[in-house]
Specification:
alpha/beta, six-stranded mixed β-sheet, two-stranded antiparallel ribbon, 11 helices, 8 strands, elongated
């Protein structure tokens, strides 16, 4: 049975939906302690919460009440979890609600592939503060539809602001009860299991003159050259703090450019690793870049449970021109 969880630990005013009523957040998780903690934190921030029960309840019987926002915890894909996610994804998309999913890096690819209709916000091992920030972020879109009409520049500015909010949330988390704190997301610059070849192992200098496609359009550069750029960017972490050079959009563009030239498909997990920022931050960038047409989400034709991220045609052409006009002349000078 679903019930409202009442909490009043703080003196915040109630967060409201588009109609001005206190916003409701439906919480689904197999771990009752996770549901209780999320309800406590969100209630203290002024949200009404609905205890939706376990993920199994999404499979058995009707989904009676979703709320303005649906938050679920799915750290592992076991049993009927995929079926539950697929059903919830369709129901949320039809209702116009907003979906927030907490998962693990191990389950990320499966979760990403299962949620292809509801435009969810996916977080990897979020902190308690990050969960509250996520709800506020999606409710801002519900309350102000103009958010959906932002220009690409405005969206990117919002992402930069979100990254600053993430940093604040992390500091807040350090002051709170850490009973359910994640073990940490870690950072790695590799885009696949083996990772890009180190500088000394790439061997030779990539061709300074890029090949041309039919019609005179520039082709993408030798992927070894792109991987060498990626490796040099990663090497900065040996001497400086990662945060000084965080540029996830460019790091992901480079990784997808190399992967396309190598005829390799890139999973969302690999792309998050390539971004060299926490996975939750990378996922937010991926979501926005897909919405802006920079990246495309492509289903695996041989396995509907998998999905990949690729460069759009215009992004591919833009990267080819960038390397032809900027990187290649620099490479020629170095040679």
């Amino acid at each position: 049975m679903q019930h409202d969880v009442q909490t009043a630990d703080f003196s915040y005013g109630s967060a409201s939906d588009s109609s001005g009523l206190p916003a409701r957040v439906a919480i689904f998780a197999d771990r009752s302690s996770w549901r209780s903690q999320a309800a406590e934190d969100l209630g203290g921030a002024g949200f009404r919460t609905i205890d939706g029960g376990s993920l199994q309840s999404l499979i058995e019987g009707p989904i009676a009440l979703l709320g303005d926002v649906v938050m679920i915890d799915c750290p592992a894909i076991e049993g009927g979890a995929l079926a539950a996610l697929a059903r919830l994804d369709m129901r949320v998309a039809q209702s116009g609600a907003k979906l927030i999913v907490s998962t693990s890096i191990d389950a990320l690819d499966d979760v990403f592939a299962a949620l292809d209709q509801s435009d969810p916000q996916i977080m990897v091992q979020p902190s308690r503060a990050e969960r509250i920030v996520a709800v506020g972020r999606v409710l801002a879109e519900i309350a102000d539809p103009r958010v959906r009409e932002m220009s690409e520049e405005d969206r990117l500015s919002l992402l930069h602001l979100s990254r600053q909010v993430d940093a604040i949330a992390s500091k807040l988390e350090g002051l709170s009860d850490r009973r359910f704190a994640p073990t940490g997301e870690g950072r790695s610059g590799t885009s696949d299991e083996a990772g890009p070849a180190p500088l000394a192992a790439v061997g030779g200098v990539a061709s300074a003159e890029p090949a041309r496609r039919k019609g005179g359009a520039f082709a993408l550069p030798d992927p070894r050259h792109v991987r060498r750029i990626i490796a040099s960017r990663q090497a900065r972490a040996k001497f400086f703090e990662d945060e000084l050079f965080a540029d996830p959009a460019w790091d992901m563009l480079l990784d997808l450019t190399a992967a396309y030239a190598e005829d390799q498909r890139v999973s969302v997990t690999s792309l998050c690793i390539a971004a060299m920022v926490p996975a939750t931050t990378a996922l937010r960038w991926i979501k926005q870049l897909v919405e802006n047409g920079v990246f495309l989400r492509v289903a695996d034709p041989s396995d509907k449970r998998r999905a990949f991220v690729v460069l759009s045609d215009r992004s591919r052409d833009a990267m080819a021109r960038y390397f032809a006009e900027v990187e290649t002349p620099m490479l020629q000078q170095a040679a």
